[in-house]
Design brief:
Length: 198
């Protein structure tokens, strides 16, 4: 698939079929993630691929419990896309245990050497995560960028053995989509482009 087509249709896919995903495809996604740029090419990222049913159940249960107190019904006047997004996020948070694969994007404080900067950890992880999302789309896989790991940080660390000094940037559920990919809804370029001056 053409890269522009993949970028333009890499919607958050929050409903996934339970069918397994070939590990080779997951490795291809990690390949794409690790082609991203990072400060000084420091590549301070790591990816934990979670397929173990017990681990997914423990993490999924902790996230669902934490999110239960946060999610409310979408406001009555919310437009359709907001309602779909909130309902989808709630459904996804409640179904992590049955997602075929969860990828936890992690980062280490490695740059600049000698005086590492926390912000540069995130600036390495997010381009990698976006590369992964676009690559998943190109392969026909569904994926959603989430920060659900923040809701259950201790359970995620404990379950996966993530050292305290390692940062956790994103938790990305991946599987064959149970909703269609389609054009992402974004502001038009004319609204955000500034030629030469603000
Ligand atoms: C940093 C970041 C965090 C996100 N966290 C979540 C999340 O926790 N749960 C979720 O369902 N979606 C999450 N998303 C996905 C966005 O909500 C989604 O991409 C956005 O609403 C646009 O929808 P679209 O990608 O389908 O066009 C996150 C996206 C980013 C970039």
């Amino acid at each position: 698939m053409d890269v522009f087509e993949a970028m333009g249709s890499a919607r958050a896919i929050r409903y996934l079929k339970p069918d397994p995903v070939d590990p080779e495809l997951i490795e291809k996604l990690i390949w794409a993630a690790t082609r991203a740029s990072s400060p000084g090419n420091s590549q301070g990222w790591d990816f934990v691929v979670i397929t173990d049913a017990d681990a997914k159940a423990r993490i999924g249960g902790a996230v669902a419990d934490a999110m239960a107190g946060i999610f409310r019904e979408p406001p009555a006047d919310a437009d359709r896309s907001v309602r779909l997004m909130l309902n989808g996020a709630r459904a996804l948070a409640g179904s992590l245990a049955t997602a075929p694969v969860l990828v936890l994007v992690c980062g280490r404080m490695v740059y600049p050497p000698g005086n590492p900067d926390e912000q540069l950890v995130w600036s390495a992880c997010y381009p990698a995560a976006q590369n992964l999302i676009v690559a998943a789309r190109a392969l026909g896989l569904g994926a959603t960028f989430t920060t659900f790991q923040r809701r259950a940080e201790q359970v995620v660390r404990g379950t996966l053995g993530i050292p305290d000094e390692v940062r956790m940037a994103a938790l990305i559920p991946i599987g064959w989509p149970d909703r269609e990919h389609g054009p992402v809804n974004r502001k038009p370029v004319e609204e955000v482009i500034h030629w030469d001056r603000w």
